[in-house]
């Protein structure tokens, strides 16, 4: 037995060195310079996530005019550079390949359901023959492999990519672009503009500005805000906090941040401990998951309910209505999951699309609460009010039962 | 185990490593049929390269994990070592190919130091490997979360080639992984410390009484395991082009590598098992993932399938004898619990 | 096996057990199972020093209430660990039960009891599967329960599409959220405190029964236990069932405490195992006291609370937790070594560290 395994070891070693001596075949799609200035500059300063230019831009975009029908927010965009796609025009149903980061949280699941219903519409109208999806389960390395697989084996006529992270996925997205097929990137961005269009709501800074401004207007200098954050290191979430922290500091509001992993148990403990050490006047969240536990911590401690910002997640909206707190629901528009397929429809027709497709991102204020609750009656707690799929087939059962392939 | 040997059937005479590869072959057969029904070829270069790419990262970590498990410990800190190594490598290299060597050495050096600490805590402070490495993993994870917010550094083009180059459909990274596996096998079967690893994992008391310093093999195994996790980090830095503080935990490599090792026929209690088996286990996982991705299985159901396959596969050969243990340390039948002094303990309690 | 108890050992043991009550108590505190109580008291003292209001009866009882779910999970995990196994499926069981309650009960009070029964049946069934696959199919429990963890969570998420319908009826949530009002001094006794006390008493009683003794024997030396005629497979299988049932109780409490969300229960298995080990219970089986496991859970929660109160930067918390776990367990291991050298016979000099278990057992019997 022992001899056998040594033989295996020697064979392996020999084979490896032999292969290494042979001429290497470098994957030609790996290019020397990814996207020119694609380097993730190694700056480790405190303000790493804060970007004044981006902050100012998103501050303006909150009040910008959107082109298109307000009844169809998933097709609206801020006027800007348009991309000519006439050379991408094709006849007949096309095959779409979708490299998804994951469906590991209720927001992504809701979007994924909507996307599949949108797909059915476009399949019926003969625009898309099929969509092949690979789910990377939140893993950069897997998603890179998924994109490479699509390029080599997928027979794809178009790519949709929802990147798991920005810098790491940039080269893979560029390889997809090099095929000459349309590439649509949505949600998180990448450090290249090679994609046909990049679809996203205004962004994290806008979220932070909306929510922190709301709290700052209602609180006084010296008041305490507890910031509940899901996890560190995710750009779309870090941007929200970067903007909010700046505004809290400017207004003299004391903000303490915690990472909760979106676990309501953690949230309730954190708030209980904070209430045990002193009063808390405001709650800020970078995502609405577990908002109910935060409010219940106040109820159980017998304290006055806080001013709060959550998200357009149903559990928060329902608890907001039930308790009548002073609150705002910032929105990271879930309807963006419809847009990539609709963008491809335009591209296949050769119609121009925005190079950067900035979708509206409007928070839900108190006076719209009833309207959104009514629209989404019967939806599960993990559903997002602005999912934008009311006119799609299967509404509302598919979302109520959260059916996904 | 003895009971199984008495069955006398051909099946019972197969070693666990044989069964691992039979399972792998079965997966291959089922996979090629399923993939064909989806209108694809399982054996196309693109698919083979996709599967092999899937084996590399897990392979590195599982090789190290095999050594640690053989010596009777565990390593749950591997994902964080992997992330740290990717950050060190990408940070030091900073897109300059002159720094590649420095980046690689520093990343592996830091990994080795972490492994040294793990080994010292386990063998010197007598902390169970599960807790020692869980704690070490938490310490590193806090360090990563505090000091790195998102991706960091950049690896130069020539270093990125390692992750992107292949000989035909076989990625270079897979070959490096196999070379590491070969080295680990030589270590296990041809060196004194290799035999000591089996001996200590099999029965620490007997090993100690036969004059082995338990510290040496435990520390060696932990250092190599962390270095292998560091290698995985280097490969990821090469594939991603940047370092990432979450790239290790994204893969869930701690539990997955342990599962791959056990799937490969290594005894979780230590002392018995082989690198060859582990490679089979890793291959089974990679093929399974590939097949399910081609079939577009619901991501939630993927975990269900994975969980069931792990248990069923291990159950298939759980009663088989487990091989590739150097014969000079006696035959099997010594379970770790059978230590001198246990009977009197019963007596005292009674 | 190779060594029997010498007369001098035996008299040392007898002497030890004959020692005065106070001395025995002090000696018990020096065992790993006792040291956790010292650690717990130290942590609680530190919390009160930082935030005196924590020491007031009403906030302290609330603290016990919110620690109850993890303490109950730790007690369940104890049964499995002391029998020499692992239960990694605990977190997934908690999540499954939480979502089951959310989706099946809804707003209907009449469904509370039937669904509650269903949840216990599910919990017992999962434990039965874990146990039988481990004992009869001889798959290592680490792998069985890892597979169960993946499969169960995957199934639950597949079934629900990742998110639950919503919180169940308030009558169900009261179990984890409510309490007996108007109690003098304390103000309120949360139901979780009462349930924890009941579970702890039950576990304590169970470990003194022949079942508990056989369980420890099975963890210590399954071969020897089997030779005495004990049905090791069934003893261990019941331990897995107790673990899953404990996870079920935790889940029921968490529905009330935190509400229904798919991330409730995440990481519970590691927290529970850490708590058990912090309580001086040895991974690998055969040693440890069940109430020390519960105390380990309290120590862990106190640590988290202390970190909240002193305002450690949120990203550093993992590191502090990791360091303290290692130090605590290393200190416990050191205690055995000292005990071994101090009180046990000199004949043990040349024996490996694992042998330290013998002297621990003496104290184990004392503490028990």
Record the SSE blueprint.
The complex is a heterotrimer of chains A (405), B (350) and C (368).
Chain A: H1 2-21, E1 25-26, H2 52-61, E2 66-67, E3 77-78, E4 82-83, E5 94-100, H3 106-124, E6 128-135, H4 140-153, E7 158-161, H5 166-178, E8 183-186, E9 197-201, H6 204-218, E10 224-229, H7 235-250, E11 254-259, H8 264-277, E12 282-285, H9 291-301, E13 307-309, H10 314-323, E14 327-328, H11 339-349, E15 353-354, E16 356-359, H12 369-375, H13 397-400
Parallel strand pairs in A: 5-6, 5-7, 7-8, 8-9, 9-16, 10-11, 10-12, 12-13, 13-14
Antiparallel strand pairs in A: 2-3, 4-15
Chain B: H1 2-6, H2 10-13, H3 16-37, H4 45-70, H5 78-93, H6 100-123, H7 129-147, H8 157-164, E1 165-167, E2 170-171, H9 172-190, H10 192-202, H11 204-209, H12 215-240, H13 247-250, H14 253-263, H15 275-294, H16 299-317, H17 342-349
Antiparallel strand pairs in B: 1-2
Chain C: H1 7-18, H2 21-29, H3 32-50, H4 57-82, H5 90-105, H6 112-135, H7 141-160, H8 170-177, E1 179-183, E2 187-190, H9 191-208, H10 210-220, H11 222-227, H12 232-257, H13 268-278, H14 290-310, H15 317-343, H16 357-367
Antiparallel strand pairs in C: 1-2
Could you please describe the fold and organization of this structure?
The complex is a heterotrimer of chains A (405), B (350) and C (368). With 405 residues, chain A is an alpha/beta fold. Among the domains of chain A are: 67-202 and 333-354, Response regulator (Rossmann fold, 3-Layer(aba) Sandwich); 204-328, Response regulator (Rossmann fold, 3-Layer(aba) Sandwich), CATH 3.40.50.2300. Chain A is built from 13 helices and 16 strands. Chain A has helices at residues 2-21, 52-61, 106-124, 140-153, 166-178, 204-218, 235-250, 264-277, 291-301, 314-323, 339-349, 369-375, 397-400, and strands at 25-26, 66-67, 77-78, 82-83, 94-100, 128-135, 158-161, 183-186, 197-201, 224-229, 254-259, 282-285, 307-309, 327-328, 353-354, 356-359. In chain A, strand 7 (158-161), helix 5 (166-178) and strand 8 (183-186) form a beta-alpha-beta unit. Residues 17-29 and 31-47 of chain A have low confidence and may be disordered. Chain B is an all-alpha fold and 350 residues long. Chain B has a single domain, classed as Orthogonal Bundle (ABC transporter involved in vitamin B12 uptake, BtuC). Chain B has helices at 2-6, 10-13, 16-37, 45-70, 78-93, 100-123, 129-147, 157-164, 172-190, 192-202, 204-209, 215-240, 247-250, 253-263, 275-294, 299-317, 342-349, and strands at 165-167, 170-171. In chain B, strands 1-2 form a two-stranded antiparallel ribbon. The longest helix of chain B is centred in the N-terminal third of the chain and has 26 residues, at 45-70. Chain B is globular. The two termini of chain B are 30 Å apart. Chain C has 368 residues and is mostly helical. Helix content of chain C is 72%, strand content 2%. Chain C has helices at 7-18, 21-29, 32-50, 57-82, 90-105, 112-135, 141-160, 170-177, 191-208, 210-220, 222-227, 232-257, 268-278, 290-310, 317-343, 357-367; strands at 179-183, 187-190. Chain C has a two-stranded antiparallel ribbon. In chain C, a hairpin with a 3-residue loop joins strand 1 (179-183) and strand 2. In chain C, helix 10 (210-220) crosses helix 12 (232-257). Chain C is globular.
